[in-house]
Automatic annotation (TrEMBL):
The gene is trpS. ATP binds at Q11, P12, S13, G19, N20, G148, D149, D150, V188, K197, M198, S199, K200, S201. Catalyzes the attachment of tryptophan to tRNA(Trp). L-tryptophan binds at D136. Signal peptide: none annotated. PANTHER family: TRYPTOPHAN--TRNA LIGASE, MITOCHONDRIAL (PTHR43766:SF1). GO terms for cellular component: cytosol. Belongs to the class-I aminoacyl-tRNA synthetase family. One of its GO terms (biological process) is tryptophanyl-tRNA aminoacylation. A motif ('KMSKS' region) lies at residues 197-201. It comes from Ruegeria profundi. This is Tryptophan--tRNA ligase.
Length: 332
Protein backbone atom coordinates (compact mmCIF):
# COMPACT_ATOMS: atom_id res chain seq x y z
CA UNK A 1 0.00 0.00 0.00
CA UNK A 2 2.82 2.39 0.85
CA UNK A 3 5.48 3.22 -1.71
CA UNK A 4 9.01 2.85 -0.29
CA UNK A 5 10.25 6.18 1.02
CA UNK A 6 13.33 6.80 3.13
CA UNK A 7 13.41 9.50 5.83
CA UNK A 8 16.07 10.44 8.36
CA UNK A 9 17.42 13.46 10.20
CA UNK A 10 20.38 14.82 12.12
CA UNK A 11 20.36 17.55 14.78
CA UNK A 12 22.25 20.75 13.94
CA UNK A 13 23.75 20.88 17.41
CA UNK A 14 27.39 21.30 16.33
CA UNK A 15 30.33 18.87 16.37
CA UNK A 16 29.13 16.60 13.55
CA UNK A 17 31.28 13.53 14.18
CA UNK A 18 32.47 10.21 12.75
CA UNK A 19 29.63 8.35 14.53
CA UNK A 20 27.07 10.54 12.76
CA UNK A 21 28.90 9.94 9.48
CA UNK A 22 29.20 6.14 9.71
CA UNK A 23 25.94 5.50 11.58
CA UNK A 24 23.85 7.91 9.54
CA UNK A 25 25.19 10.20 6.80
CA UNK A 26 27.23 7.65 4.84
CA UNK A 27 24.27 5.29 4.87
CA UNK A 28 21.93 8.07 3.72
CA UNK A 29 24.20 8.43 0.71
CA UNK A 30 24.21 4.65 0.10
CA UNK A 31 20.39 4.61 0.12
CA UNK A 32 20.10 7.44 -2.37
CA UNK A 33 19.13 6.25 -5.82
CA UNK A 34 16.77 6.96 -8.70
CA UNK A 35 14.37 4.14 -7.72
CA UNK A 36 13.40 5.48 -4.30
CA UNK A 37 12.52 8.75 -2.72
CA UNK A 38 14.94 9.88 -0.01
CA UNK A 39 14.04 12.68 2.40
CA UNK A 40 16.75 14.04 4.69
CA UNK A 41 16.31 16.73 7.28
CA UNK A 42 18.29 18.92 9.66
CA UNK A 43 16.17 18.68 12.79
CA UNK A 44 16.63 22.08 14.42
CA UNK A 45 13.41 21.72 16.42
CA UNK A 46 14.92 18.67 18.11
CA UNK A 47 18.16 20.52 18.78
CA UNK A 48 16.38 23.23 20.82
CA UNK A 49 15.02 20.68 23.32
CA UNK A 50 18.25 21.61 25.08
CA UNK A 51 19.62 25.17 25.05
CA UNK A 52 21.23 26.36 21.79
CA UNK A 53 22.83 29.77 21.26
CA UNK A 54 20.78 31.30 18.41
CA UNK A 55 23.82 32.37 16.35
CA UNK A 56 25.44 28.97 16.75
CA UNK A 57 22.24 27.16 15.83
CA UNK A 58 21.99 29.08 12.57
CA UNK A 59 25.66 28.37 11.84
CA UNK A 60 25.38 24.68 12.72
CA UNK A 61 22.31 24.27 10.53
CA UNK A 62 24.18 25.57 7.48
CA UNK A 63 27.26 23.57 8.41
CA UNK A 64 25.20 20.39 8.68
CA UNK A 65 23.63 21.10 5.29
CA UNK A 66 27.15 21.52 3.89
CA UNK A 67 28.06 18.20 5.55
CA UNK A 68 25.15 16.40 3.88
CA UNK A 69 26.11 17.70 0.45
CA UNK A 70 29.86 17.18 0.93
CA UNK A 71 29.23 13.57 2.03
CA UNK A 72 27.36 12.92 -1.22
CA UNK A 73 23.71 13.86 -0.78
CA UNK A 74 22.55 15.39 -4.06
CA UNK A 75 19.81 17.98 -3.42
CA UNK A 76 18.39 17.22 -6.87
CA UNK A 77 18.04 13.51 -6.08
CA UNK A 78 17.12 13.72 -2.39
CA UNK A 79 14.86 16.19 -0.61
CA UNK A 80 17.19 18.08 1.74
CA UNK A 81 15.71 20.67 4.09
CA UNK A 82 15.46 22.18 7.55
CA UNK A 83 12.71 20.91 9.85
CA UNK A 84 11.45 24.28 11.12
CA UNK A 85 10.77 25.40 7.53
CA UNK A 86 8.09 22.71 7.17
CA UNK A 87 5.41 23.51 9.79
CA UNK A 88 3.53 20.25 9.08
CA UNK A 89 6.06 18.45 11.33
CA UNK A 90 4.95 20.32 14.46
CA UNK A 91 1.30 20.24 13.44
CA UNK A 92 1.33 16.45 13.19
CA UNK A 93 3.44 16.23 16.35
CA UNK A 94 0.61 17.89 18.30
CA UNK A 95 -1.84 15.22 17.12
CA UNK A 96 0.68 12.57 18.14
CA UNK A 97 1.11 14.22 21.56
CA UNK A 98 -2.57 13.46 22.03
CA UNK A 99 -2.21 9.86 20.78
CA UNK A 100 0.94 8.89 22.70
CA UNK A 101 0.82 8.26 26.47
CA UNK A 102 2.95 10.01 29.10
CA UNK A 103 4.32 6.65 30.26
CA UNK A 104 5.67 5.89 26.77
CA UNK A 105 7.75 9.06 26.83
CA UNK A 106 8.93 8.63 30.41
CA UNK A 107 10.28 5.16 29.62
CA UNK A 108 12.67 6.40 26.90
CA UNK A 109 16.32 5.93 27.84
CA UNK A 110 17.38 9.09 25.96
CA UNK A 111 14.93 11.13 28.06
CA UNK A 112 16.31 9.60 31.25
CA UNK A 113 19.93 10.16 30.16
CA UNK A 114 19.49 13.72 28.93
CA UNK A 115 17.13 14.92 31.66
CA UNK A 116 19.40 13.48 34.34
CA UNK A 117 18.42 13.63 37.99
CA UNK A 118 16.50 16.86 37.78
CA UNK A 119 13.64 15.86 35.44
CA UNK A 120 11.41 18.64 36.78
CA UNK A 121 13.80 21.14 35.27
CA UNK A 122 14.11 19.51 31.80
CA UNK A 123 12.16 21.12 28.97
CA UNK A 124 8.76 19.71 28.11
CA UNK A 125 10.08 19.45 24.54
CA UNK A 126 12.80 17.03 25.65
CA UNK A 127 10.11 14.70 27.02
CA UNK A 128 7.95 15.03 23.89
CA UNK A 129 10.91 14.64 21.51
CA UNK A 130 9.95 11.12 20.28
CA UNK A 131 6.48 12.33 19.35
CA UNK A 132 7.98 15.01 17.08
CA UNK A 133 10.34 12.39 15.67
CA UNK A 134 7.37 10.16 14.84
CA UNK A 135 5.77 13.13 13.07
CA UNK A 136 8.99 13.82 11.13
CA UNK A 137 8.81 10.31 9.73
CA UNK A 138 5.09 9.76 9.35
CA UNK A 139 4.26 13.14 7.79
CA UNK A 140 6.01 11.66 4.72
CA UNK A 141 4.50 8.18 5.14
CA UNK A 142 8.14 7.06 5.24
CA UNK A 143 8.62 3.30 5.24
CA UNK A 144 12.36 3.06 5.98
CA UNK A 145 14.46 5.01 8.46
CA UNK A 146 18.26 4.59 8.48
CA UNK A 147 19.65 5.48 11.91
CA UNK A 148 22.29 4.51 14.44
CA UNK A 149 21.55 1.96 17.13
CA UNK A 150 20.79 4.65 19.75
CA UNK A 151 17.59 5.56 17.89
CA UNK A 152 16.10 2.07 17.96
CA UNK A 153 13.84 2.73 20.92
CA UNK A 154 12.49 5.95 19.40
CA UNK A 155 11.65 4.09 16.20
CA UNK A 156 9.75 1.47 18.15
CA UNK A 157 7.77 4.31 19.68
CA UNK A 158 7.09 5.68 16.19
CA UNK A 159 5.59 2.30 15.29
CA UNK A 160 3.52 2.31 18.50
CA UNK A 161 2.15 5.76 17.68
CA UNK A 162 1.26 4.72 14.11
CA UNK A 163 -0.45 1.56 15.37
CA UNK A 164 -2.42 3.40 18.06
CA UNK A 165 -3.50 6.16 15.66
CA UNK A 166 -4.65 3.59 13.10
CA UNK A 167 -6.53 1.64 15.80
CA UNK A 168 -8.06 4.65 17.55
CA UNK A 169 -9.50 6.00 14.30
CA UNK A 170 -10.14 2.66 12.57
CA UNK A 171 -7.95 3.46 9.58
CA UNK A 172 -4.89 2.04 7.85
CA UNK A 173 -3.37 5.46 7.30
CA UNK A 174 0.14 5.54 8.77
CA UNK A 175 2.73 2.94 7.71
CA UNK A 176 4.52 0.81 10.29
CA UNK A 177 8.03 2.06 9.66
CA UNK A 178 11.07 -0.23 9.38
CA UNK A 179 14.23 0.88 11.15
CA UNK A 180 17.33 0.29 9.02
CA UNK A 181 20.17 -0.25 11.50
CA UNK A 182 22.96 -2.12 9.77
CA UNK A 183 26.67 -2.20 8.93
CA UNK A 184 29.79 -2.36 11.09
CA UNK A 185 29.28 1.05 12.71
CA UNK A 186 25.74 1.26 14.05
CA UNK A 187 27.23 2.38 17.37
CA UNK A 188 30.61 4.13 17.16
CA UNK A 189 32.10 4.42 20.63
CA UNK A 190 34.13 7.19 22.27
CA UNK A 191 37.87 6.99 21.50
CA UNK A 192 38.56 7.55 25.22
CA UNK A 193 36.05 5.15 26.76
CA UNK A 194 34.74 2.04 24.99
CA UNK A 195 31.60 1.98 27.14
CA UNK A 196 30.28 5.37 25.94
CA UNK A 197 29.04 6.22 22.46
CA UNK A 198 30.86 8.84 20.44
CA UNK A 199 28.73 11.93 20.94
CA UNK A 200 28.46 15.61 20.05
CA UNK A 201 28.00 16.48 23.69
CA UNK A 202 31.05 14.68 25.15
CA UNK A 203 33.13 17.45 26.80
CA UNK A 204 36.36 15.78 25.64
CA UNK A 205 37.18 16.69 22.04
CA UNK A 206 39.67 13.77 22.00
CA UNK A 207 36.72 11.38 22.40
CA UNK A 208 35.44 11.99 18.89
CA UNK A 209 36.61 12.69 15.37
CA UNK A 210 34.78 15.77 14.12
CA UNK A 211 33.92 16.02 10.45
CA UNK A 212 35.73 19.37 10.44
CA UNK A 213 39.00 18.00 11.92
CA UNK A 214 42.11 18.35 9.76
CA UNK A 215 44.38 15.43 8.84
CA UNK A 216 46.86 16.00 11.69
CA UNK A 217 44.09 16.17 14.28
CA UNK A 218 42.47 12.97 12.99
CA UNK A 219 45.82 11.14 13.08
CA UNK A 220 46.57 12.41 16.58
CA UNK A 221 43.17 11.39 17.97
CA UNK A 222 43.54 7.88 16.56
CA UNK A 223 47.12 7.58 17.84
CA UNK A 224 45.95 8.56 21.32
CA UNK A 225 42.79 6.42 21.24
CA UNK A 226 42.51 4.05 24.19
CA UNK A 227 43.41 0.45 23.30
CA UNK A 228 44.84 -2.64 25.00
CA UNK A 229 48.28 -4.25 24.75
CA UNK A 230 47.20 -7.37 22.82
CA UNK A 231 47.57 -8.07 19.12
CA UNK A 232 44.45 -8.05 16.94
CA UNK A 233 42.64 -11.39 16.66
CA UNK A 234 41.84 -12.91 13.28
CA UNK A 235 38.12 -13.39 14.06
CA UNK A 236 35.45 -11.15 15.54
CA UNK A 237 34.89 -13.45 18.57
CA UNK A 238 38.36 -12.44 19.75
CA UNK A 239 37.07 -8.85 20.26
CA UNK A 240 34.14 -9.66 22.52
CA UNK A 241 35.84 -8.51 25.76
CA UNK A 242 37.82 -5.71 24.09
CA UNK A 243 35.42 -2.80 23.43
CA UNK A 244 38.11 -0.24 22.46
CA UNK A 245 39.81 -2.64 20.05
CA UNK A 246 36.50 -3.67 18.56
CA UNK A 247 35.50 -0.05 18.07
CA UNK A 248 38.63 0.79 16.05
CA UNK A 249 38.24 -2.33 13.88
CA UNK A 250 34.55 -1.54 13.32
CA UNK A 251 35.45 1.99 12.25
CA UNK A 252 38.02 0.61 9.82
CA UNK A 253 35.45 -1.84 8.44
CA UNK A 254 32.77 0.81 7.93
CA UNK A 255 35.18 3.29 6.32
CA UNK A 256 36.46 0.62 3.91
CA UNK A 257 33.02 -0.91 3.19
CA UNK A 258 34.00 -4.29 4.60
CA UNK A 259 32.67 -6.51 7.36
CA UNK A 260 34.58 -6.66 10.64
CA UNK A 261 35.58 -10.27 9.86
CA UNK A 262 36.97 -9.26 6.47
CA UNK A 263 39.12 -6.62 8.14
CA UNK A 264 40.36 -9.05 10.79
CA UNK A 265 41.28 -11.59 8.11
CA UNK A 266 43.60 -8.89 6.79
CA UNK A 267 44.97 -7.35 10.01
CA UNK A 268 44.75 -10.22 12.53
CA UNK A 269 48.06 -10.63 14.37
CA UNK A 270 49.07 -6.96 14.02
CA UNK A 271 49.75 -4.76 17.04
CA UNK A 272 47.96 -1.42 17.47
CA UNK A 273 51.26 0.33 16.76
CA UNK A 274 50.87 -0.91 13.21
CA UNK A 275 47.07 -0.86 12.90
CA UNK A 276 46.49 2.69 14.15
CA UNK A 277 48.49 4.37 11.37
CA UNK A 278 46.58 2.27 8.82
CA UNK A 279 43.31 3.44 10.36
CA UNK A 280 44.49 7.05 10.47
CA UNK A 281 45.47 6.97 6.78
CA UNK A 282 42.12 5.47 5.83
CA UNK A 283 40.16 7.96 7.94
CA UNK A 284 42.07 10.91 6.49
CA UNK A 285 41.60 9.60 2.94
CA UNK A 286 37.84 9.26 3.43
CA UNK A 287 37.15 12.33 5.58
CA UNK A 288 39.49 15.00 4.18
CA UNK A 289 37.64 15.42 0.88
CA UNK A 290 34.41 15.85 2.85
CA UNK A 291 35.80 18.45 5.25
CA UNK A 292 37.44 20.36 2.40
CA UNK A 293 34.15 20.46 0.49
CA UNK A 294 32.25 21.45 3.65
CA UNK A 295 34.59 24.39 4.15
CA UNK A 296 34.16 25.48 0.53
CA UNK A 297 30.36 25.28 0.77
CA UNK A 298 30.40 27.26 4.01
CA UNK A 299 31.78 30.15 1.95
CA UNK A 300 28.52 30.11 -0.04
CA UNK A 301 25.84 30.76 2.54
CA UNK A 302 23.33 32.13 0.06
CA UNK A 303 23.62 28.96 -2.02
CA UNK A 304 23.00 26.79 1.05
CA UNK A 305 19.96 28.85 2.00
CA UNK A 306 18.63 28.53 -1.54
CA UNK A 307 19.04 24.73 -1.46
CA UNK A 308 17.26 24.50 1.90
CA UNK A 309 14.38 26.72 0.74
CA UNK A 310 13.90 24.63 -2.38
CA UNK A 311 14.07 21.42 -0.33
CA UNK A 312 11.42 22.76 2.07
CA UNK A 313 9.05 23.44 -0.85
CA UNK A 314 9.48 19.88 -2.10
CA UNK A 315 8.98 18.49 1.40
CA UNK A 316 5.80 20.50 1.94
CA UNK A 317 4.36 19.20 -1.31
CA UNK A 318 4.37 15.72 0.26
CA UNK A 319 3.65 16.65 3.87
CA UNK A 320 0.74 19.09 3.41
CA UNK A 321 -1.72 16.60 1.83
CA UNK A 322 -0.85 13.94 4.43
CA UNK A 323 -1.48 16.43 7.26
CA UNK A 324 -4.76 17.52 5.64
CA UNK A 325 -5.94 13.89 5.49
CA UNK A 326 -4.86 13.36 9.10
CA UNK A 327 -6.97 16.35 10.19
CA UNK A 328 -9.96 14.92 8.31
CA UNK A 329 -9.54 11.54 10.00
CA UNK A 330 -9.43 13.26 13.39
CA UNK A 331 -12.53 15.31 12.54
CA UNK A 332 -10.96 18.70 12.01
P1 LIG B 1 24.06 12.92 18.38
O1 LIG B 1 23.54 11.62 18.99
O2 LIG B 1 25.50 12.89 18.03
O3 LIG B 1 23.62 14.15 19.13
P2 LIG B 1 21.84 12.97 16.54
O4 LIG B 1 20.95 12.63 17.69
O5 LIG B 1 21.52 14.15 15.70
O6 LIG B 1 23.35 13.07 16.98
O7 LIG B 1 21.90 11.69 15.62
C1 LIG B 1 22.02 11.74 14.21
C2 LIG B 1 22.20 10.34 13.68
O8 LIG B 1 23.51 9.87 14.01
C3 LIG B 1 21.22 9.31 14.27
O9 LIG B 1 20.83 8.40 13.24
C4 LIG B 1 22.05 8.61 15.31
O10 LIG B 1 21.59 7.30 15.55
C5 LIG B 1 23.41 8.62 14.65
N1 LIG B 1 24.48 8.53 15.65
C6 LIG B 1 24.75 9.41 16.63
N2 LIG B 1 25.81 9.02 17.36
C7 LIG B 1 26.23 7.85 16.81
C8 LIG B 1 27.30 6.94 17.10
N3 LIG B 1 28.14 7.18 18.10
N4 LIG B 1 27.43 5.85 16.33
C9 LIG B 1 26.58 5.60 15.30
N5 LIG B 1 25.57 6.41 14.97
C10 LIG B 1 25.39 7.52 15.71
NA1 LIG C 1 21.36 10.63 18.94
Amino acid sequence: KFTPRVFSGIQPSGNLHLGNYLGALKRFVDMQGPEKETVYCMVDLHAITVWQEPKELAHSTRELCAGFIAAGIDPEQSILFNQSQVPEHTQLAWIFNCVARMGWMQRMTQWKDKAGKNQQNASLGLLAYPSLMAADILVYHATHVPVGDDQKQHLELTRDIAIKFNNDFGVDFFPITEPVIEGAATRVMSLRDGSKKMSKSDPSDMSRINMTDDADTIAKKIRKAKTDPDALPSEVDGLSERPEARNLVNIYAALSNQTTDEVLAEVGGKQFGEFKPMLADLAVAKLSPISTEMARLMGEEAEIDRILAKGADKARAIAAPILRQTYEIVGM
